[in-house]
Amino acid sequence: MRREIAHGSLLREANIPPTSSLLDPIAPVLENRPLGADHFLLTLASPSIAAAARPGQFVMVRLPDRLDPLLARPMSLHEALPPEESLPGRIRILHKVVGKGTSLLASLAPGQSLHLLGPLGRPFEIPSPGGSDRALMVAGGVGIALFPFLVPALLAGGWKPILLFGARSAPDLVTRDAFSRHGVEVLTATEDGSHGTRGRVTALLEERLAGAGMIYACGPDPMLRAVSRLANAAAVPCQLSLESAMGCGFGVCLGCVVPVRRAEGQAYARICVEGPTFMATEVIWE
Ligand SMILES: Cc1cc2nc3c(=O)[nH]c(=O)nc-3n(C[C@H](O)[C@H](O)[C@H](O)COP(=O)(O)OP(=O)(O)OC[C@H]3O[C@@H](n4cnc5c(N)ncnc54)[C@H](O)[C@@H]3O)c2cc1C
Ligand code: FES
After folding, report:
1. What is the pLDDT along the chain (286 residues), one digit of tens a residue?
2. Distance from the CA of 103 to the center of ligand 2, in angstroms?
3. Is 6 exposed, middle or buried (0-12, 13-18, 19+ CB in 10 A)?
4. Closest-approaching ligand to the CA atom of 101
C-alpha cells in the first residue's frame, strides 16, 4: 500500500502542527492508578494541553532519557481537567499494557515525567442534533479510552449519549461505572458472557440503531468495519476513531495511511493528521 502513495504530494501537504499547538513537552506524573490487571489510568500535569485539547484528539508519549522504545506511542485523551484549588490543569490517559512501551507507562510513578507531543489529530465533530438527539457511543476494549472526554461535549451540544461497550470479558469493561454515575445509559456485551449480553457489541448496535442521530465508535478494526457497515446501511452518520502504529504522529513519516473515498476517487489519508476521526462513509475497508 505504501508504494502507491504519492509521497511527494503528501509530504508537501504535510500539516506539521505549528509549534504553538505542541504544548507541555514535559509532563509530570501525578498518579498512575491500576484498573484491574492490564489497564492503567495515568494523570499528568499538563495545563496547556488540558486547555487546548478537544475530544477525539491524542498525544504522542515517550519516556525521557530512553532510546528503547525509540518511537513515541499514540494515546487518546481520556479526560482534560481544568485547574482547581492547588492542582494544575491535567490530562488523563487510559492505557492497556500490550508491549514494551505500555509496560513502561505502567511502571511510571509520581515524581517521574513523560515527553508529550500534542494535542494532535482531528477531533470529533459535534453537530447540532437534527431529527434525533440520541448519540450512540460504541466502544470495543480499550477503545473506551476516549469516550469520557466526549460525554460532556455531547451533553453540552444537546445530545443524549448512550454507551454500547463490548469486550472479551468483564474485567476489560473498565471505567463503565463512571459513565453510569454521569447518567449515561450503559449497555455491555462480553464475548464470554461474563457481563451483559453474550457476544459482540455490534449486536447491541443493531438493536439500538433505528432512530439514532449519530454514532461515535472506537475499537479494533474488525469492530469498526462492522459498525461502518451497519451505520452506512441504516444511513446513520457515524464517526470512527481509527488506530494504527505511528512513527511521527504529525504527518511526515506516512506510517499510518488508510485508503479513503474522496470526490475525485480513492485516496490515502494519514490517520494522525486527517484522522484519527473519519466518517464511516469515507473509510475503505479492504
Ligand atoms: C490515535 C491512537 C490513539 C490510541 N489511544 C490509545 C489509548 O488511549 N489507550 C491505549 O491503551 N492504546 C491506545 N492506542 C494504541 C497504542 O498506541 C498501542 O497499544 C501502543 O502503541 C502499543 O505500544 P507498545 O510499545 O506497548 O506495544 P508494541 O510492543 O509496539 O506492540 C505490542 C503489540 O500491540 C500491537 N499494537 C501496537 N500498536 C497497536 C495499535 N495502534 N493498535 C492495535 N494494536 C497495536 C502490536 O502489533 C503488537 O502485537 C492508540 C493508538 C492510536 C493510533
Ligand atoms: S504520518 Fe507519521 S504517524 Fe502519521
Report:
1. 333 333 233 333 434 444 345 666 899 999 999 998 799 999 999 999 999 999 999 999 998 877 677 678 999 999 999 999 899 999 999 999 999 999 999 999 999 999 999 999 999 999 999 889 999 999 999 999 999 999 999 999 999 999 999 999 999 999 998 999 889 999 999 999 999 999 999 999 999 999 999 999 999 999 999 999 999 999 999 999 999 999 999 999 999 999 999 999 999 999 999 999 999 999 999 7
2. 23
3. exposed
4. 1
Starting from the CA of residue 242, give the closest ligand.
1
Q: For a pocket test of ligand 2, which of 59, 272, 274, 278 has the largest count of ligand atoms closer than 8 A to its C-beta?
A: 272
Ligand that lies nearest to the alpha carbon of residue 119, given by its number in the listed order? 1
User: Residue 158's closest CA among 214, 75, 79?
Assistant: 214
Does the beta carbon of 22 sit less than 6 angstroms from any atom of ligand 2?
no
Per DSSP, helices labelled H in the chain are 7-13, 47-52, 100-106, 147-156, 176-181, 201-208, 221-234
Could you tell me if the CB of 102 is within 6 A of ligand 1? Answer: yes
Q: How many residues does the chain have?
A: 286
